[in-house]
Amino acid sequence: IPRTPAPAGAELYFESPADGATIKGPVTVRFGLKGMGVAPAGIRFDNTGHHHLLIDTDVPADLAQPLPATEHVVHFGKGQTETTITLPPGKHTLQLVLGDALHIPHEPPVISKKIAITVKP
Questions:
Q1: Positions of E strands within 25-89
Q2: Which of 43, 74, 76, 118 is deepest in the core (most CB within 10 A)?
Q3: Pairing label, strands 37-38, 48-55
């Protein structure tokens, strides 16, 4: 299956929390996207995708496959642009990956930088 193209300059980032933040949970996470739009899973529009939040994990090695749905890879297939998550106290990493209508990362992949947060007890 050919991967869905992403436009040059598309950028995925966290509006909040800030990298390095120390937060008392639950944590509200806001997703930022430049150069593309958001569409629900299963809906094909050029230059759109939907968010996947990676929690305490790395981007999968094989980006030609759909992103799995696990406790570490949370899908936002309705086109949501924010969520509230409950994390145990301690250090955590968060990263965003944009997926196409079939949950497959675009080509080139649109991935945020990985941020680290600390959740206070």
A1: 27-34, 37-38, 48-55, 73-75, 82-85
A2: 76
A3: parallel
Whether 92 contacts 116, CB under 8 Å: yes
Q: Which two tokens stand for residue 118?
A: 């600390």
Bridge partners (DSSP) of residue 5 are: 107
**Alpha carbons 86 and 96: distance in angstroms, whole number:** 17
Q: Residues with Cβ < 8 Å from 4, sequence gap 6 or more?
A: 49, 100, 101, 104, 106, 107
Pairing of strands 48-55, 82-85: unpaired
Calculate the alpha carbon distances from 72 to 4, 52, 67, 92 in Å: 24, 10, 11, 11
Distances (CA, A) of 47 to 92, 98, 103, 106: 30, 11, 14, 9
What confidence tens digit (pLDDT) does each residue in 14-73 have? 999 999 999 998 999 999 999 999 999 999 999 999 999 999 999 999 999 999 999 999
User: Cα dist. 68→14, 18, 42, 109, 120 in Å?
Assistant: 21, 26, 15, 16, 29
- 24 sits in which H/E element: strand 22-24
